[in-house]
Each structure stands twice: as structure tokens, then as C-alpha cells.
Amino acid sequence: MVSEKIEAPILTGSITVPKIKENASIDQKCHHAAEKHMEKLGFPGVKPVDWKEKALKKMKELLKKYRSLKVYLDTCVRCGSCADKCHYFLGTGDPKNMPVARQELFRKIYKRYFTVEGKVLGGLTNAEDLTEEVLEEWYTYFHQCSQCRRCSVFCPYGIDTAEISMAAREIMDSIGVGQKYCNEVLGKVYDLGNNLGMPGPALRNTLDFFEEDIQETTGVDVKLPLDVVGAEVLLVSPSADFFSAPHVDSLVGYAKIFHKAGISWTLSSYASEFANFGMFIGSYAVMKKVATRILDEARRLKVKRLIVGECGHAWRVGYSFWNTLIGPLDFLDPKYPIPQHICEFSLDLVNSGAVKFDKSANDEFTVTYHDSCNVARATRMGDKPGGQFEIPRALIRACCNKFVDMPDDVNREKTFCCGGGGGLLTEEIMDLRVKGTQPKAQALKDLMESHQVNLMVMICAICKAHFSHVLPHYGIPMETVGGVHQLINNAIVL
Amino acid sequence: MNIIAYIAVVIFIVGFICKVRVWTKVPAPLKIVTTPAPITYPGVILRMASEVFLFRSLFRGNKLLWLGGWIFHISLLFIVLRHLRYFFYPVPAWIMSLQTIGIYAGYIILLPLIYLLLRRWTVEINSYISNAMDYFTLFLIIGIAFTGILMKQYIRVDLVDVKAFMLGLLTLHPTISPGDILFLVHFLLVLFLILYFPFSKLMHAGGIFFSPTRNQRDNAREIRHITPWSNI
What we know:
The complex is a heterodimer of chains A (about 500) and B (about 230).
Chain A: H1 35-40, H2 51-65, H3 67-75, H4 87-92, H5 99-114, H6 116-121, H7 132-141, H8 150-154, H9 161-174, H10 180-192, H11 200-218, E1 233-236, H12 240-243, H13 247-261, E2 265-266, H14 284-300, E3 305-308, H15 312-325, E4 340-341, H16 342-352, E5 367-369, H17 373-378, H18 387-399, H19 430-436, H20 438-451, E6 455-458, H21 461-470, E7 481-483, H22 484-491
Parallel strand pairs in A: 1-2, 1-3, 3-4, 5-6, 6-7
Helix pairs in contact in A: 2-9, 5-9, 13-22, 14-15, 16-18, 18-22
Chain B: H1 2-25, H2 41-54, H3 56-61, H4 63-83, H5 93-96, H6 99-108, H7 110-122, H8 124-129, H9 132-153, H10 159-170, H11 181-196, H12 204-207, H13 212-215
Helix pairs in contact in B: 1-11, 4-6, 4-7, 7-9, 9-11
């Protein structure tokens, strides 16, 4: 069901807790994955007759595999600290978008089938039978969680709703009830190595176009190499960097900085995707398979370093999970972090004096920075906690004159999701996405009015795509959205 | 009464241990620590201590709830410590020294309890997320506090009897329980609370220590994190 009407909430000047509106976002339902897309990932194509038994069996399996799931289901006291922290609840008022209520959709089934108290006391503990209706509810509301982990920051026990929504999605996939957007995209990665389904020759054409463009605008011969065996660095970037605005400006920024640093580098047509939607659907096996393409390619191209582009959830997979999934990557040069974020790489060059910026090239902009959820709450950069906040900001300050930070309550680890993360970057739930953007749109609008901010940069492909699509609903021009390396692209002295 | 007491205590201990054992056995296959996070073990200990003793995350989430929750738990701690006097003969000096503060805590605890209850009742989002057992737990603890205060303040019970009974239980030489109704109600409610403990959200007391988003180190790139099933 595609939402006919998209309603942007009016920005009132503050972020407030809404009145509860039961079922306010129940019509925002993601399209189901087709049989062929399910089977490609190794899931059943259709829902089996004994789906309920299969789902419970899967749940039992996951309870033995993930401590997070088990402990979080057992520990919640429903204190409500998380309740008003979710952007989808703040935007829609649908009570099932309160993190604790979203968890309860899972917990009530867990209670009913896996706990003594649920079996004995039943409904008094909120325990409930697994039925078609519950499954519908699961499908709707576990695809209204962007797995941004903001709730987990404020939970006294660190309960992470993302862990629960990932498990729920894995259970649903295991009974043939998958989401179209993620599973279709993952199929493309299996076939062609990237989310866009773009074959190698098309990629080469695009890169040629960028090379010509740089030549025309700067007169300098900057290369964007592809599939070069023996390059020092393999750069893995989200495929949106090759095609979408404003993403491409950051890609050109990476190319220029490699050029200036004089470090040989290459992109890959086989591993042409940093994004890993295997995380969104909660599947360890899929996530590992997607990541393995990058490992294989790093080996084949005999590179010494692995550097990754601006992508939030993928940085989480790369930073936090790659070492577990495809490690140890001990054939790479241990002098550098494995993997290294492009921001870490660029800031090192700035600090060593290898690259210089003409800050005035960005004088038309008053810049603010959006902390992307996965970068902020699930990763680090550099060697100190909080480097994921300081390093991108240091880079921004190095290449522009006017920078204004967001207010504390929407910044750093308290940042709000753009509204399109966690596998929700799909058209049919546009109304939900627009509403989920409200908190961050409010903060941005305030800065635009108080400090004349006209550019919000970020290091996440999903944030960039989502914001440029959605902010116009709030009267904010799409050109307000940019990448950190876009600023570098403007200011670097070649 | 003696049998009920023993059953409750055994169920509590066995239930608690079983639950914790399951948590220990289930692996945490991936690094999912909520960042910014400490990189070293001492850092993790500091982070956990700030959660366990100061409820740091709750403080960041909701100041009033933090105040209510923290006063409740700290009062409970002093009340429990003060009650140890009924289990020791002679009573160690450090327990004696907690007598006054323990008694004050017994009165003070009613305030956060009533606040927590009213909050569930009256604030729309909290009312939506509360289930029957959430209220039940609060009523149970309020009942315990209330009967405790009655005994202390208004209807005195024979403490010599009570203490002899408790020591009897503790040394496995059970005696006949005191006949005082108020004491029996108080005691039974406590027994019910600890019996219910392992099957309820009260297990948050143990769960916090097993929360991967809080107890992991942020060192995924430096040290390969592997568990048996994830190393496939």
C-alpha cells in the first residue's frame, strides 16, 4: 500500500512528546519481497502452512545465539526512559513506535512460549499467542524501526531495540515474509556487487565522466582508477557515491585527496558496494556473504590498505563487524587501522600538511554537521572514544570558515536518525519517513534561522539520499544536504 | 510458615542462578557496544559502576524518573542492610550504625514508590506501556513498606520473638513463627516478592551486567571478537 498523502508535521519550534494516536502509522507498510528475491538469499519464497511452528523454532534458535536478544527480553522494566526518544514516535504519535512498545510486540510472544511466568500468568504479563494478526503487526512495526539505537543510549540497561527488530526481521525472513526493498537490493549485490545493480562497464563510464569533469573544472589530471591490481589502497564506497546527488561530490573529493597525497588507489567493480543491508535484515550469514566480496577483492587486487567511503551503517559493519565476519585481515598493512575511514585518512593528511585547503572556496556556506546514527552510536574513529564526532568536525573546520554545531540534545550520540535508515529508504512508506525526520528538521530549521546555516554535511549515503528527498517537505531546499568530502572537493588546493 | 520461607528462598536462589547461567551461556557474537565507549577493562568497570550506582543512562533519559528511581533503590539498599540486624547475633557494629538511616529510608521509600505508581497511572505514554504485573510489583513493594512502617511506628511487634524465629530459620533449626498478624503479612509479602523475583522484570538487577551494549569494550578493529558459532 503506497501512502497517497504525505503530511509533513508543522515545525513548532521545539521537539515535544506527542499525544498518543493509536494506529497512526499502521498504514505505512513496506512492500513484501517477491518469491525470487527471497529465494536468492536462501529464504523460503512463500509462507509455509506451518509458519507458526517454524517462526517459534527460529526464535528459539536466536535466543540461544544472541545474548543481547535474550537479556534484553528478560530485563526491560518498562520504565519509559526510551519512550519519547524515537523519531518515528515523536513524528507519528503511534504508540507502537515507542521503543519499549515496539519491543513488547516481540516480548509478548517470547513471554508466551519461552517463559514460566508467561505460561502461568498469561495476559497479566502481556503474553500473547502468535497469530496472523501479530505477524502483521510485527511486519508493520519492525519495519518502522530504523535501528538507529537512540533508545539504547537512554536505557538504564542499554537495551537496544535494533537488536530486537533485527531478530524479528530474521524470523520473518525465515518464514517467507521478507521486505522487498532490502532483499531486492541484497540480490543485486549477490549478482553484480552493488546495491544499484550497476555492471562494471557502466561504472567505468561514470568514472571517466568524473575524470573529464575534474579536468575541465580544475585543469588537473585526477584519476579514478578501477580494478587496478597492486594499488596501495582499495577504496570501498557506497554505490550511491557513483550516481546520486549530492553523493558524487564526495566521491570526487576522495579522488582529489588521493591524487594530492600521491597514494595509489583503486575502486573495484566486483566489490563496488560498501553498504551491507545484511545487517538491516538481521542475517549474520547474508551480512558475511556481502562482506566477503570485499575480502576477496582486497586479496585479488593485492592492496595493502582498505579505506571506506561515507556510509553510516556500513561503517558500523566495517568497523565493528568485519574483523569478526571476514577477519583477521592480516595480509593488510598493520600500520593503518583496518578498515580505515576516509575521514581518518583525510584528517591525517591535513595534519601532516600533505594537503592544503583554500577555505574561502566554501565561503558561500555556513555549515552544520549531522551525526549519522550508526557512526555516532556504534563505531569509533581514531584512537579515542568520541573520535567519530571529533574527526569529521576537525575536517570540516579545516576546509571551511563558518561552522555551527547542532544543539546538544540532537547532537553526537544523542543525534536523531535522518528518518530513512535501517532499510526503510523506500517510497511506499514516505509519509512515515517524512514524519520521522521532524526532530532533525526542527533542529536544522532553527540553525537556518538563527545562524543562517545553508549546508548540512554528513557522512552517510542513506542520510544524504533521505534528507535531500524529504527536507523539501519542510520547506528546506534539497541543496542544503551535502557530504563532508564535498567540502574537501571544493576547497582542496590541487 | 517455615516451609513457605524455605521454598521461597530456594526458588529465588535456584531461579536466579538458572537465569544468570543462561545469560552466561548464550554468546554475544558481535561487538554491539553503544559508543562512545571505553576501550579498556578499567573503563568498562567505570562505565558499569556509573550505571549500577548512579543510573547514568537513566539520568540522561529522564531527570525526574531518575530522581524517583535512584531514591527508591538507595532507600531499598539501606532498608535491606538495616534488616540484617535480625539475622545476626550478636549484631555487628556496622549494621548497628545503619539503624537510624535505615529507619529513615523506610519512610522515605514511600515517596518514590507513590511517584512511580502515579506516573504509570497518569502520564499517557507510561500508562500505555504498563502491564498488570508492573502495577502488581509496585503494589507488592508498597505493601511491604506500609506494613513495615506500621510495625515500626504504630503497632509494635515482639522483636525478640521475630529475631529468634529468623535466627532459627537461618541456622536450619526452625522454631514456631511469631503469632503477630502484622509481622506475618509483612514477612509473607517479602517471601512472595523474592519468590516472584526470578520470573519477573526484577531480574534487571542481574541483567544489567550482561548487557553487551554496556559491558563490551570498543576495540573491534584492534582485537578480533569471536565466539564459537560466529566463527563459521
